[in-house]
Fold these 2 entries.
Entry 1:
Amino acid sequence: MESKQFQLNDIVEMKKQHPCGTNAWKIIRMGADIRIKCEGCQHSVLIPRKEFEKKMKRRLVEADPQ
Ligand SMILES: [Zn+2]
């Protein structure tokens, strides 16, 4: 299985959409925990990296390299 690629500022799709109906999340913090922000309602959540990797479906938009 291909390992998931993601970096800060990427927009990703999760396996479950947010209750607001949007399924696009921006990665706004990277670390042992990852903070993602819903592109629909701007709600943000902090999740452990392991859990994030499990719940992330795919990358929608790749951030420009810094
Ligand atoms: Zn939302």
Entry 2:
Amino acid sequence: MTTEEVRRIFEELIGREKYEKFISALHNPSRTRGRMKFWQEKLWNQFCSETGYPETSYEDITKLFDYCLIHNQEFRADIVPVVYGTFEQEPKEKQFIKDNNFPYAALQVKRGGPAEAETETTVKYCIECRKAYKSVWPTLCSNTAVITEKF
Ligand SMILES: [Zn+2]
């Protein structure tokens, strides 16, 4: 089975909504602490038993789904600035637009708290997300500025 086939068949099996939830959880490793949650394991085991797909490590599963669902683009790696400070919660409307148009622009990484030595870090990003981001908020394209704009 190719990666594309795994994605397509898994999505057909569990439905779009669960598929999106499954992948979104994989893309947030801080929330999953490097392993799948119970409900994810259940879905994945269902896929394996129905298709005969071999047992897969967590790392290999994350690689299978390392792509942007919205743009169907494989993630690429980039080095971006780390910005330290206290950040306000994004307004809901703005978060909604981000989540639905360019969730993986990843132009910078925000870290709470005082500045530390690390000024850059590696991220995964989607090239189409970055294009969408830049077309929506041209003023936000600076890699170095802390985002403080009002929506
Ligand atoms: Zn994207």
